C-alpha cells in the first residue's frame, strides 16, 4: 500500500482549486465563523472569491508557508489549513485551521492539524508548533487540549469583537510531546 503524508485517518490535504470558490464564498458569509477564525471583514463579491481561490491555486510551494484545502474521503471540500510564522532557524511555526460549519465536530480539524504537524516535525526538522486561540472560541480550545497542546499564556484584552474585549490564549506543542500523543493513538 502507498503511503501519502498528506492523508490522515479522515481527510486528505490538497491544493486549493479554482472550483472551490463557492464553498469558500458561502463560508465567508458566515459572520460567526469569521469571528472565530479572525475578524469580520466586509462582504466580498462572488468574483472576488473566484479571484482569491484562483490566486491561492496558483501560489507556488515553498514547503513552509502554505494554505491547503481539507477534503474528506467522500471528495468533499470541508475547510482549509494554513501555516505562518514559520521560523526554520528556531524550528517553530504556527497554523490556522477552519472547517465549514456543516462539517464541525466530525474530527476533520484535528486530523488536518495532525497531518501538518507531522509534516513539519518529521520532514522539516521543526521542534515546536504554536497556536493562538481567542478565549471565546471554546471549540478551538477543546481541539488544542485534545491534541495535547499546553496553554502557555494569556494575552489579556487582545481582541475586540461583538462589543467586548477578549483574551488571546497561546498554546504550544513540542515535537517530543507530539510523538508521545501519536504513540497513544496507535
Question: What distinguishing features does this structure have?
Answer:
34% helix; Aminopeptidase; alpha+beta; 186 residues; seven-stranded mixed β-sheet; GNAT_dom; globular
Provide a descriptive summary of the structure in words:
This protein is an alpha+beta fold. The protein has one domain (11-185): Aminopeptidase (3-Layer(aba) Sandwich). Helix content is 34%, strand content 32%. It has 6 helices and 7 strands; from the N terminus they run βαααβββαβαββα. Strand 6 (150-161) and strand 7 form a beta hairpin. Helix 1 crosses helix 3 (46-58). The chain is globular. The two termini are 18 Å apart. This is RimJ/RimL family protein N-acetyltransferase. Residues 11-176 form the N-acetyltransferase domain. It comes from Sutcliffiella tianshenii. InterPro entries: Acyl_CoA_acyltransferase (IPR016181), GNAT_dom (IPR000182).
CATH fold annotation: Aminopeptidase
CATH architecture heading: 3-Layer(aba) Sandwich
Strand order of the largest sheet: 1-2-3-4-5-7-6
- Determine the mean pLDDT: 94
Specify the overall morphology. Answer: globular
Organism: Sutcliffiella tianshenii
Protein name: RimJ/RimL family protein N-acetyltransferase
Pfam family, one: Acetyltransf_3
Domain N-acetyltransferase: 11-176
Topology of helices and strands:
Blueprint: E1 11-14, H1 21-28, H2 31-37, H3 46-58, E2 67-72, E3 77-87, E4 92-99, H4 108-123, E5 128-134, H5 138-146, E6 150-161, E7 164-174, H6 175-185
Parallel strand pairs: 4-5
Antiparallel strand pairs: 1-2, 2-3, 3-4, 5-7, 6-7
Helix pairs in contact: 1-3
Amino acid at each position: 500500500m502507498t503511503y501519502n503524508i498528506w492523508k490522515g485517518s479522515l481527510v486528505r490535504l490538497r491544493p486549493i482549486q479554482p472550483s472551490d470558490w463557492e464553498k469558500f464564498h458561502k463560508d465567508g458569509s458566515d459572520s460567526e465563523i469569521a469571528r472565530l477564525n479572525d475578524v469580520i471583514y466586509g462582504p466580498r463579491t462572488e468574483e472576488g472569491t473566484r479571484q482569491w481561490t484562483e490566486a491561492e491555486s496558483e501560489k507556488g510551494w515553498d514547503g513552509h508557508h502554505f494554505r491547503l484545502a481539507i477534503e474528506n474521503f467522500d471528495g468533499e471540500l470541508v475547510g482549509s489549513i494554513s501555516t505562518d510564522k514559520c521560523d526554520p532557524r528556531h524550528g517553530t511555526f504556527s497554523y490556522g485551521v477552519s472547517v465549514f460549519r456543516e462539517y464541525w465536530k466530525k474530527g476533520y480539524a484535528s486530523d488536518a492539524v495532525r497531518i501538518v504537524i507531522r509534516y513539519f516535525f518529521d520532514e522539516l526538522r521543526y521542534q515546536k508548533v504554536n497556536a493562538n486561540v481567542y478565549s471565546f472560541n471554546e471549540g478551538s480550545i477543546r481541539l488544542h487540549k485534545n491534541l495535547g497542546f499546553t496553554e502557555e499564556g494569556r494575552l489579556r484584552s487582545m481582541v475586540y469583537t461583538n462589543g467586548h474585549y477578549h483574551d488571546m490564549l497561546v498554546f504550544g506543542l513540542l515535537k517530543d510531546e507530539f510523538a508521545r500523543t501519536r504513540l497513544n493513538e496507535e
